[in-house]
TrEMBL record:
This is F420-non-reducing hydrogenase subunit G. Residues 14-179 form the NADH:ubiquinone oxidoreductase-like 20kDa subunit domain. Keywords: Oxidoreductase. It comes from the Bacteria. PANTHER family: COENZYME F420-REDUCING HYDROGENASE, GAMMA SUBUNIT (PTHR42845), F420-NON-REDUCING HYDROGENASE VHU SUBUNIT G (PTHR42845:SF2). GO terms for molecular function: iron-sulfur cluster binding; oxidoreductase activity. SUPFAM superfamilies: HydA/Nqo6-like.
Length: 324
């Protein structure tokens, strides 16, 4: 049996997804018998010419983690699409834009200005900003162009499968690695390595739910949560009501609310709108109907609405970026 030919790359991400592949324990030891890695620059000594030398359509599976922020990342994603018969978006950043996608609240110019001029630690009196081309004597120094907005992988190239998570849980990774053959042959019907139901269905606190409304909301650091009770019913906002299950409820089991890294539920028109609606429905202890002004009073505890409801999904939301 011939080995599967696999290539991997990262774009705008923290590197945690690459590390997660190595953190699964023993299953990683079985991979050399099944796959041949032809390109993985973050882990092995590969360079762009190694990727370019691969014949188009010759690779079984291409795995990309990270959102698309620069012209170089977009170019490499398109090269991957040409080389690979199957493309996998790995991790929340590739699937939905991820935490880097929160940068879409600002223009590219505003982000560069903040990073290189306004940040307190800078010493940049001339106000110099990175440029795609800079002339230095007889040399032209080049940098990848900064795109106007951050995009998910499937906003740049067609994607065949999605492995969500920040990073994906060990059980998700093991399931994905075990299905590589089916993925390579596109024999797997489900495109997501996650469940189609909300995380609440898998939450160990589900049996303790009493469907109570809350008089106010708390941020996680403002009170010690009862580990047996639903976090929402304690006034601690949890995205599990609007997030795919499949992670094993690992944050909730650690007494922390879900932040939504496995992405929106199937059919959700907007990733954060459902969560916001559900949260508003919980507001108002002892009242069947709460007028909008009182709902807003309860929601006042949400200090960063975009960062709360779209932590990982802003680039795929209905309103997904600031217009310059």
């Amino acid at each position: 049996m011939s080995k599967l030919k696999v290539i991997l790359n990262w774009a705008a991400s923290c590197g945690g997804c690459d590390v997660s592949l190595l953190d699964v324990g023993r299953p990683i030891l079985d991979l050399p018998e099944k796959i041949e890695i032809l390109y993985w620059p973050v882990a092995l000594d590969f360079k762009r010419p190694d990727l370019a030398a691969l014949p188009d359509g010759s690779v079984d599976v291409g795995i990309i983690n990270g959102a698309i922020r620069t012209a170089e990342q977009e170019e490499e994603a398109k090269i991957f699409r040409a080389k690979c018969r199957t493309i996998v978006a790995y991790g929340s950043c590739a699937c939905f834009g991820g935490i880097p996608g929160l940068g879409n609240q600002f223009t590219a110019e505003e982000l560069l200005k903040r990073a290189y001029i306004e940040a307190p630690s800078n010493a940049n009196e001339e106000g110099v900003l990175p440029q795609p081309v800079s002339e230095r004597g007889n040399f032209a120094l080049t940098l990848p162009a900064f795109s106007p907005a951050i995009r998910s992988l499937d906003q740049v190239i067609p994607v065949d499968y999605y492995v969500p998570g920040c990073p994906p849980s060990t059980s998700t990774i093991v399931s994905f690695l075990g299905a590589l053959g089916a993925v390579a042959g596109k024999e797997r019907e489900e495109r997501y390595f996650a469940a189609d139901k909300a995380l609440c269905y898998d939450c160990p606190r589900a049996q303790a739910k009493e469907a109570k409304k809350v008089a106010r909301l708390y941020r996680p650091h403002q009170q010690v949560a009862d580990p047996e009770r639903c976090l929402l019913e304690q006034g601690i906002f949890c995205m599990g009501i609007a997030t795919r299950s499949g992670c094993g409820a690992r944050c909730v089991r650690a007494n922390m609310p879900c932040r939504g890294c496995y992405g929106p539920l199937p059919g959700a028109d907007d990733p954060g709108a459902g969560a916001l609606s559900a949260l508003a429905g919980l507001a108002g202890e002892g009242e069947d109907y709460l007028p909008p002004p009182k709902v807003l009073d309860v929601l006042e505890a949400v200090k960063d609405a975009v960062g709360t409801f779209y932590t990982f999904t802003l680039p795929v939301a209905t309103l997904n970026k600031k217009r310059g």
